[in-house]
Amino acid sequence: GAGVSQSPRYKVAKRGQDVALRCDPISGHVSLFWYQQALGQGPEFLTYFQNEAQLDKSGLPSDRFFAERPEGSVSTLKIQRTQQEDSAVYLCASSFDGTSHIQYFGAGTRLSVL
Amino acid sequence: QKEVEQNSGPLSVPEGAIASLNCTYSDRVSQSFFWYRQYSGKSPELIMSIYSNGDKEDGRFTAQLNKASQYVSLLIRDSQPSDSATYLCAVIPGRGSTLGRLYFGRGTQLTVWP
After folding, report:
1. How far apart are CA A56 and CA B35, in angstroms?
2. Residues A30-39, buried b or exposed e (16+ Cβ, 10 A)?
């Protein structure tokens, strides 16, 4: 595709429900990042993939958060037993490789946990 | 101390004026600096990157970097109402963290009034 694609755009979950957020990066991009953006804040790093390898997951806030990129392309961020504090916009970004430093962002998934 | 600090504003300027946005960072060996623009409800869009001390100009935008003062700024000349958005400063630290991981400030909200 022409850009980074994320789905769904909006997700409403009941507290305790599991959710899965999808990211389809720009074709050929090696690096993939997930960020969490709370209202009125800048994005905060969650995790990073280089191809299918998850090289850094230090930003994941708890063990309820899990991300994968099994074939080095599409990535899924899963949140188990959602809590109200998980409500945020989840942004995915990709870059050509780990050294280009230019990241292209998707439109994000706005998660609301009720 | 947050890695990247920005005045959250809001900053309000009249159409045609120069808007000046400022950012400081804590990691002295940071090498890569970015300005992203984010319209309400949209994803961050890269507008400037700068890697060396001095000024970098692109159309109406000028980024300025002073590594000795750990300071990076963005000037928008001839501001237009369409420039109204939140501007995010982002830094890649130079120490051994994830290559390409961006640290964002909380953003400065700019309003350009006609």
Report:
1. 24
2. bbbbbbbbee
The answer to whether residue B93 neighbours chain A at the CB level (below 8 Å) is no
B90, B36 in Cβ contact below 8 A? Answer: yes
Q: What is the pLDDT of residues B3-44, one digit of tens each?
A: 899 987 899 999 999 999 999 998 878 888 999 999 998 999
Burial A103-112 (b: 16+ CB within 10 A, else e): bbbbbbbbbe
> Dmax of chain B from CA atoms?
46
pLDDT tens digits, A70-111: 999 999 999 999 999 999 999 999 998 756 678 999 999 999
Closest CA to B72 of B109, B113, B108, B110: B108
- DSSP label at A86? G
Measured CA distances, B28 to A23, A42, B37, B48, B67 (Å) = 33, 21, 25, 20, 7
Chain B positions in Cβ-Cβ contact with residue A105 (cut-off 8 Å): 36, 43-45
* Cβ pair B104:A104 closer than 8 A: no
The residue type at B17: A
CA distance B75 to B64: 8
Task: Tell me, yes or no, if B102 comes closer than 8 A to chain A by beta carbon.
Answer: yes
